[in-house]
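Pasting two entries for a bug report.
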Amino acid sequence: GKTTTAVRCMISALQRGQKAAYFLFDERLATLMTRSRVLNMDLQPFIDAGLLTIRQIDPAELSPGEFASAVRSAVEKDDVGLVVIDSLNAYLHAMPSDNFLVLQMHELLSYLAQQGVVSLMILGQHGVTGDLRSDLDISYLADTMMMLRFFEADGEVRKSIAVIKTRTSDHERTIRELRIDGGG
């Protein structure tokens, strides 16, 4: 549900006429397009209208500096107001020898914030249930964090969603069940 939630947020911005750039590390573009269409979140009309660009990133062919340059170009040349990075895990695993990735990500996110660009970043955690952990703690960079988790109820594995951090206001702390189907 992480990618689907990010796509749903992005579509809201696109429907308001805002431009977006989606940087896809984890899965194939065809998979993202098909899944989004099946969930009634077709991205193709936004691509055709010039509001959305999706770039599938092959980290083996792109350095961290080149990635940051691609993001800056989307903002400065294409007037993008929303950037999605899916996912930070793949970005970091693809370039394990670079000791400055977190610093570079900090600089990139600071730049985007200064430009008034909304950044949606997906970070997967290890562990399906119980204690969750991540390879990376960038919570200090985020203004808002949502967490999706699995839980068991009535003999079924279900998904939950909760806002666990926001800097801009006091937020609801309710954990809600998340269900995704063909209606969204």
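Entry 2 (this is the one that rendered wrong in the viewer):
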Amino acid sequence: MFTAGTETSTTTFDWAMTELMRNTRVMAKAQAEIREAFKGKKTIEESDIQNLKYLKLIIKVNFGVHPAVTLLPRACREECEVDGYTIPSKAKVAVNIWALRRDPEYWEEPEIFKPERFENSSVDFLGNNFEYIPFGSGRRFCPGMNFGIANIHVPLAQLLYHFDWKLPHGMNHSDLDVSEIPGVSVQRKNNLYLIATPYNPSIEG
């Protein structure tokens, strides 16, 4: 459980920072929310994260655009028919989580990183909506979900609160490479390099 909640969390965190650097509007809105909520605080605890509504939307859309695991292995419990194909009992099948979340039949502009798409939406990642199941569903639901989410929310909030971020000199936001490499978790092909500047609220104020 800890292994599953660590590697996938690291991958998700990496993609979240990548998308925030590609979408400066989203980055600015997230930092404004965090810095307003924790004005004057030196540290952010896990219990403090509950009120960061926009940050939660960012994590939610990130699970969709960049699911840590793209294929969900399962076995068919009984013979069934899908689109005219007979799937025998005990056959090994793979649910394509990546494709489900990018299906234009269910998602408008599915590849766009837009946290607002989940605002006022009942769709969640608890396995109740089969078009969006980053943690699976049913009895085989990911047991490391809560641990993994905490591993993303807390460090991401801290980095956005304590630092301002920019790309290395000479790079534009459109230059960010989003190539992937295959594996148990879908990681970036190339490392993400950013320049961090400590945030000083007294100067801004």
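Dev reply: Rendering is fixed now. As a check, the viewer should reflect this: The beta strands are 71-75, 80-82, 85-87, 92-96, 163-166, 180-181, 187-188, 195-198.
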